Every structure is written in structure tokens, then in C-alpha cells.
Amino acid sequence: MAMDMRAIVLDGPVEPEELRVRRVPVPEPQSGWVRVKVEAFGLNRSEYHVREGLAAGVTFPIIPGIEAVGTIDSAPGGEFAEGQRVAAMMGGMGRQYDGGYAEYVVVPASSITPATTDLDWATFGALPEMLQTAHGSLFTGLAIEPGQSILIRGGTSSVGMAAAAIAKEHGLTVFSTTRNPDRVGVLKEHGVDHPIVDDGNVAEKVREIQENGVHAALELIGTNVLPDTLKALAVHGTACFTGMLSDNWTIPDFYPMDYLPNGVRLTAYSGQSHDLPAEAFQRYVDLVAAGKLPIRIDRVFAMEEIGAAHRIMADGKAVGKLVVTVN
Asked: Which residues form the Enoyl reductase (ER) domain (predicted)?
């Protein structure tokens, strides 16, 4: 076991180009925690917020990263077998304690989800947080049912594309938005029934296709577009607020009678690893491996390219997931 490892460490807010790989001691797991030898990790908006200094409750220095995949390197409590392939996600990773942007990460055993798969590390590394957020938003936040229709606002984000794939596989009609007309074809290729170019009047475009509105809406952009998203819903329809790609988090002077259309419901989702049960995660992994759940990876980076990866994320240039392979 090496005494030190490569990691990306934040000493405070920095620009993407200032991110660097450095050598730090390999962390030791205590009882109830496990050490994972990291093979790949996905990039998430959460790490953008940490890097920008926008995340509440984060103490620097910190190794960011709310997810990682790899193999069990040490499990003092015997919860998992050495060499077992696993995903680690959430539970305070990259915020309350060091996260997945490293060759090794130590996390609570409760943050580990095992999976049996021959997927390459980059593809497997794209899945954990993306699937957890999409699955939780759809089934906990929106309680989707086959035969319904859903609007996904922020459709070319990694979660947006995963949510579209899962909703389609579950038997829903999918509306999904992009601000870039050049990305309409990508949405169609990934199973979206009604791609919509977002010009700020999405509700009007939805109702031109489905006059009474959609049953469900997944909000991934932010509160700046939420009123328009709510207007796209049918009576008794539900919107789930999950993402803030625009960095608009709050609703000033919230007056429900004015803000919410008559009979429309608003909920939210911000889940943890246990919101994606191991059996559901395994099922999705198997569907991806079989080519039955289309997941889009925009680009795969080496660890030393972390600055370029974060620049693409910051500029909103990715269509799908950005992944870093460690070895």
C-alpha cells in the first residue's frame, strides 16, 4: 500500500484552470467506513458549487467529489469483500469529508452500493449520481406511472438525459428542453418524443403539442424558469425541483396563490445513496450494459485534465456526463 496518492485538493475557491493534481497521504478507514480504490468519477454541479465557494458548510481544504467507482481496498468492519466492485456516492462526500477526486477515498459503508458488471470504468463511473438523482426525482419526487407524460427542463444535462431514458423505459411520453437548436437531434437520438427549444416560453410550446399540459415536470434549471415550467403542467400535475443549473436557488417573496397555477403541485428532491436501492442500481447497470438504457457520456478525461473538464462544466458545453478516469 502506497503511503501517498494523487488527488485534487481545493484550498479555497479557484478558477477551473487552477485545479491541480497533488500528492497527499492515503486515508485510513475507521470502523464503519471503507476505503475504495477509485477507478473513475463523474463530474457534478455540486463540485462546481464547491469550487466556486458557493456550497454551504464546506470547510477548506477539501478533496471534492460526491461520487466515485472502483473496488473495495479495505473494509475493517467486513461489510464488503476486498476487490468488490462498488459505487460510492453522497453521504457527505466532498463536502463534510474528502471525496472522490482521488486515487483512494474513505466513505461510510452506508454510502457504498455494490454492482456486478463488466462495464468499462468510464461508463460505470458515469452512472451512480446521475442515476440516483434521476431515479429519485422520478419515483420519489414525481411518482411517475406508465402512460403519463413528463417535461424535463434542462434535458441535455447528464441528469436530464438519464431521466429521459428512465422515463421512456418506464412507459412515459417524454418532452425535453434544450436552449441550443443544434442539440435537438441528440435528444431525439436518446428517445425523447418531443424535443423543445427553450426560448423562455416552454409551457406554450408544450400545450401546442398537448393542450391540457403534462402530468409531471422535472426542473433542473432553477427558480428563474420554474414559473414557466409550472404553467406546462395539467391540473393535478406535479413539478419536482431537483437542479439549479442556472444557479438560481430561491424564490423571492414567495406567494403560493400567485406563484402556483390552480391545482398544480410543487415538490423537491435532494436524495442520498439509499434512495437508489442496490437492486434498482443493478437493474439500471444491466440495462446500460445491454444497450437498453441509453446513457450519454460527453467526454472522458484523465485526472491531469481536471481543469479542462471543469471549464466545460462551468461553461455548460457538455451534452451528457463528464467522467474522469484515475488510472
From this structure: 12-324
